[in-house]
Amino acid sequence: MTPMVEAQGVHKRFGRTEVLRGIDLSVAAGEVLCIVGPSGSGKSTFLRCVNHLEKVDAGRLLVDGVLVGYREEGGRLHELREREVCATRRDIGMVFQRFNLFPHMTALGNVMEAPMQVLGRPRAEARAQAVALLERVGLSAKADNYPSQLSGGQQQRVAIARALAMGPKLMLFDEPTSALDPELVGEVLDVMRQLAADGMTMIVVTHEMGFAREVGDQLVFMDEGTIVESGPPREVLAAPRHKRTQAFLSKVL
Amino acid sequence: MTSVDPGVRDAHNAPEDIKAVPVRHPGRWVAAAVLAVLVAQLVHFLVATSKLRWDVVRSYLFNHQILVGLERTVLLTVGCMAIGVALGVTLAVMRMSPNPVVKSVAWLYIWFFRGTPVLVQLLFWFFLPTVIHSLSFGVPFGPSIVHADAKTVITQLWSVLLGLGLNEAAYMSEIARAGILSVDEGQTEAAQALGMRRVQTLRRIVLPQAMRVIIPPTGNETISMLKTTSLASTIGYLELLGSAQLIYARNYLIIPLLLTVSIWYLVLTSVSYVGQYYLERRFGRGTARDLPPTPLQRLRVLGFGRPAGGLG
Questions:
Q1: What ipTM did this prediction achieve?
Q2: Between chains, do B193 and A149 touch, taking CB under 8 Å as contact?
Q3: 3-state SS string for chain A
């Protein structure tokens, strides 16, 4: 079976700084991959490469067997047109550290926006789906509230519902709980846990080691743009082999 | 020992409310008195001086010619601002384009139209038909398809609309650009991650949020435009000021007619304040937990409630 995400020697540069220096990994459908590591290690950049918010400079990155951002034709890579890039992004949901909800729309409006604008769904249908999704993340009562009237945890749950509204086959989480008060982290992790249990393929950049241990199928420890260590979360977290991983985990755990 | 429920206020244990002697502000009384005298003098001058001829002002306030001029002033303001806003937003988006030619053209436009006086531009459009007699649209440097006499196309009205509208676009583009730049980058990313295209993202996500920043200076521009339209009188287009000039050229009642015109300009700017207020409310949705009261609601409060903050 083709893996949902496959990275082969992925490189990314910002000017002269090499942020990703050869990332190889593979995520099977229905799997949860957790990426941990110090800030500046390239975790978020890798995540942003998966839905082409950042362009890969070298190597290959495939989602569901299809190259991200490029098309191979006659032995050469061609950049995709905007229309094609947008089409691939539809199937990949993303949740951001700072939520990035649309502040001028209600919770319901946030969830309805993309299905209506991108998929051309009729309003009534998009509305019914949005109501169901908000119920799924436990926010039916807040449907008509604007983001500024919601707590951080509630905003992040709306953001998850917004991403799910496009019916993605892959979900990317970029430090989804890092901007939250400690007491609000749990409600967001609960929603993510449920999502994983429902069989969603997920890549989660996180500092929540408990979540990684419990929900993750694979754990990757990144540092300075490379994968230092990877394996089943329980093994890596309990007995890290590399010094760098040991040093990081001793500070975090 | 008695247990005290912290949720219930105990009448016996609660401290008495503070009744302190308020601080006096003699300075405020002096300033108010001085200003009151000055204002009274001004009002006395305006009302009691027969030289201002308020009777003439009143008789010309609803004069047919003045009202026609008023209508034209409104038409010019709306027209010029419409051109200014539409072209301004376009130029702002052009300036942020990755295409260097598009970007430079927008920059050059703004450089030229902000760098020359609006009166010069107005006169330029008006006198353009004296050197270019015909206008033609067709293949560049090739055969023309549509052909027109310049004088019939660039009428007085159109030279004002072009002169003031194109000039306004240069200013509006900077206002629009500031608004677009004020929207967090994360908003664009979130929209892109959902598969929205650039145009959709701009129209549905970025511009509605930019409006909050764009509206106040645009209100400023509108009020400024209301008054700038009086330049049209220099090319003989009879808007509000031009109509008054035409009248006082015959009867020499210059000051009363200028007062008439001033009253109308004040009415128009006041109306635009209200319009701006409601626009700000419309685009402020989601940013404040509670929207501020409308002018109507505020009037009601003034009428029935106590005014806040006295002289003390």
A1: 0.93
A2: no
A3: CCCCEEEEEEEEEECCEEEEEEEEEEECCCCEEEEECCCCCCHHHHHHHHCCCCCCCEEEEEECCEECCEEEECCEEEECCHHHHHHHHCCEEEECCCCCCCCCCCHHHHHHHHHHHCCCCCHHHHHHHHHHHHHHCCCHHHCCCCHHHCCHHHHHHHHHHHHHCCCCCEEEEECCCCCCCHHHHHHHHHHHHHHHHCCCEEEEECCCHHHHHHHCCEEEEEECCEEEEEECHHHHHHCCCCHHHHHHHHHHC
Local structure of B116: helix, strand or coil: coil
Segment A198-220, tens digit of pLDDT = 999 999 999 999 999 999 999 99
Angle at B112 between CA B111 and CA B114, to 5 degrees: 70
Under CATH, to which class is B53-135+146-284+293-304 assigned? mainly alpha
CB contact under 8 A, B193 and A117: no
B 41-100 residues with CB below 8 A of A? Answer: none
Mutate to test the interface with A, among B99, B185, B194 (most CBs of A within 10 A): B194
SS3 B134: strand
Quick one: average pLDDT of A162-184?
95
CB contacts of B205 in chain A (<8 Å) are 102
Instruction: Kindly report, residue by residue over A223-233, the tens digit of the pLDDT.
Output: 999 999 999 99
Q: State the nearest Cα–Cα gap between B32 and chain A, in angstroms.
A: 42
Confidence of residue B292 (pLDDT cuts 50, 70, 90): low
* CA A93 – CA A137 distance, rounded (Å): 15
Amino acid symbol at A5: V
For residue B177, what is the enclosing H or E element? Answer: helix B156-181
User: What residue in B sits closest to A48 (Cα-Cα)?
Assistant: B193
Rounded to whole angstroms, what are the CA distances from A17 to A14, A54, A69, A225, B116? 5, 14, 22, 10, 45
Q: Which of B130, B79, B127 shows the shortest CA–CA distance to B236? A: B127
User: Chain A to chain B, count of Cβ pairs less than 8 Å apart?
Assistant: 76
Instruction: Report the pLDDT value the prediction gives residue B1, as an integer from 0 to 100.
Output: 45
Is B209's CB within 8 Å of A147's CB?
A: no
Which of A96, A117, A146 to probe the B interface (max B CBs under 10 A)?
Answer: A117
Q: What is the pTM of this model?
A: 0.81
Residue pointed to by tokens 């002002």 = B57
